[in-house]
Amino acid sequence: MATEKEEKKVYVNKKGLRLDGRKIDETRPIKITAGVLKNAKGSCYLEWGQNKVLVSVQGPREALPKHTANPLKALLKFTYRMAAFSVPDRKNPKPGRRDIEISKVCGEALEKSVFLEKYPNSQIEVWAQILDSNAGSRAAALTAASVALADAGIPMKDLVTSVAVGRADGKIIVDLNKDEEDAPDAVDMPIALMSNSKEIVLLQMDGLFSKKEFDEAFEVAVKSIEGIKKLQIKALKEKYESKEFEQASKLSEKALPKQPSNLLEKDLPKQKVDQKTGQKKEEKKAEVQ
């Protein structure tokens, strides 16, 4: 009976709506907040549907161990971890093959966007912690990590924005949830772009598309990424245009040591040479009696 019910499940109805009421080209609600961790150089908190991601950035700082240092550019170390309570069945906190694979591909994607050559012999550390997960966590982590890097003041060519597109019930849909990932004909394709140049920095596929389906999925992904990038930019603007940031900037400026003012030559005390001693004396103005 359970199998028959699963076969009869309609993932996209006649009105073009999915199980959770979204349209086929509609993402889940996304909320991005930059600069949430005071002890990190840069940070970001992202909610994407049920997914909740916290990312911190440290560095650039000395590359350790020293034999890993590159004299031509910085190393970017991306660490992806899922909390034990992030999924219904308790996850082993020890990093598995999936965690290691996502850490690798996300790190390589972010490397494309950062001017690593500005920081030779150093390393930039990006930590992404998944607090709650429901499909699409790598896209959420990568999107949040790019905001955290920008928050840290790391020079970048462009923000990296990611989304997953796929197929369920024969329809191309964007931002699959867990139920849609488990559809009988499901295909999941995470993709990340630097949208200004349209450079693809991440493209993976779980399943098979026809050429026509791939072209349609890619078009839908690009459109969604443009909307998500606006949310990334909005999050950064909200932090750096806020009154709290302005006040913190003023306090930090006051804490800096004052620089000596540049005196004009006319403001310098005039000096003359004592004919007896040969030493310079400051000319004193005659006091008016």
What can you tell me about this protein's structure?
By secondary structure, the chain is an alpha+beta fold. The chain has one domain (20-242): GHMP Kinase, N-terminal domain (Ribosomal Protein S5, domain 2, 2-Layer Sandwich), CATH 3.30.230. The protein has 6 helices and 11 strands. It has helices spanning 2-8, 97-111, 137-151, 178-181, 211-240, 243-255; strands at residues 30-34, 42-48, 51-62, 75-82, 122-132, 161-168, 171-174, 187-194, 199-203, 271-273, 280-282. The strands form 3 sheets. A 5-stranded mixed β-sheet has the order 1-2-3-5-4. A 4-stranded antiparallel β-sheet has the order 7-6-8-9, sandwiched between helices. The protein is globular. 35% of the residues are buried. The model is unreliable at 281-289 (pLDDT under 50).
Reconstruct the topology from this structure.
Blueprint: H1 2-8, E1 30-34, E2 42-48, E3 51-62, E4 75-82, H2 97-111, E5 122-132, H3 137-151, E6 161-168, E7 171-174, H4 178-181, E8 187-194, E9 199-203, H5 211-240, H6 243-255, E10 271-273, E11 280-282
Parallel strand pairs: 4-5
Antiparallel strand pairs: 1-2, 2-3, 3-5, 6-7, 6-8, 8-9, 10-11
Helix pairs in contact: 2-3, 3-5
Can you describe this structure in just a few lines?
With 289 residues, this protein is an alpha+beta fold.
Q: What is the share of helical residues?
A: 25-40%
What is the CATH H-level superfamily? GHMP Kinase, N-terminal domain
Largest sheet: 5 strands, mixed
Identify the CATH class: Alpha Beta
